[in-house]
Amino acid sequence: MRRPTLEAVAARAGVSRATASRVVNGQTTVAPHIRDAVLRAIDELGYVPNSAARSLVTQRTDSVALVVSEPGTRVFSEDPMFSTAIRSASMELEAVNKQVVLMMASSPKSHARVERYISGGHVDGVMLISMHGADPLPSALSRLRVPVVSYGRPAVPVEIPYVDNDNIGGAEAGVRHLVETGRRRIATIAGPQDMIGGQDRLTGYRNVLRDSDHRSIVAVGDFTRESGAVAMRQLLRDDPELDAVFVANDLMAVGALQSLRQAGRRVPDDVAVVGFDDIEAAKYTEPPLTTLRHPVAEQAAAMVRLLLNLFEGGASEPVILPTELVIRESA
């Protein structure tokens, strides 16, 4: 069977080809009864628009690049942040008939590949996730005049709209909880210091300790479980008398709990532990983890809505989502 054409749809609906085309392309300058006739003809004939031809007319690809500045081994690892954010962004875009093009950008070669692809007009906009330090992509993409939004505040001085959570306020709430429950020697396992999330959560920790006359005790991890275990062992060597630790994400907190258990430290009797993110596994650690709830899915969905707003010429003000302290048995 031959594929139904736009001319056949127009003939079935009793309208011109130009009118049928306006309906297919979503233009609003067509009377409702004519639009209904065209849509009915599309349904009866099983017509499927030619996406390439439609893009020429609308100047839209209906595709959005989701660029993750991490290697695939990190994105498709045990860290649920990436899968949750990707799934949420995909669902939000699917609801408006757009698709995600997932791209990794963790090396100069991959940065150049991403920039070439986007400059080729293959996508309508870009969402950036997990940027590190002097990542060249935000500046490079802003020069291409393509709409760009960021999951998290950019670390580089470039005007890109972003959606973030209250990293500083959340960290302050977690550390304040430790202070208020009588802990005196409160350490932290900070996140990577080339990432805004790692920097801000360390800032929140230091803010509370400075105001409460406690001494800072800091080790740095990379948001992986293994780095949390290594950092916890380092902290125990540096200060065997510590009685609490604020950990900048839950995966590192899982590693920290393992090291504390191996060292014979009871949680929370000897050392209280607070994490950040409230991943699903936080409910099932031993003991269950007190943590800050970071709304990953909501943040990714808000990022999509911000980008869609940019498509329509709307506002580009940053969006900051609140965090929430979830108290369980570890603190």
TrEMBL record:
Q: What keywords are assigned to this protein? A: DNA-binding, Transcription, Transcription regulation
Indicate the segments annotated as coiled coil, or none if absent.
none
UniProt keyword annotation of ATP-binding present: no
Stored Pfam families: LacI (PF00356), Peripla_BP_3 (PF13377)
What InterPro entries does the entry give? HTH_LacI, LacI/GalR-like_sensor, Lambda_DNA-bd_dom_sf, Peripla_BP_I
- State the PROSITE patterns in the record: HTH_LACI_2
Which SUPFAM superfamilies would you find in this protein's record? lambda repressor-like DNA-binding domains, Periplasmic binding protein-like I
Task: Give residue ranges for domain HTH lacI-type.
Answer: 4-58
- Name the Gene Ontology molecular function terms of this record: DNA-binding transcription factor activity; transcription cis-regulatory region binding
Q: Does the keyword Transcription apply?
A: yes
**What name does this protein carry?**
LacI family transcriptional regulator
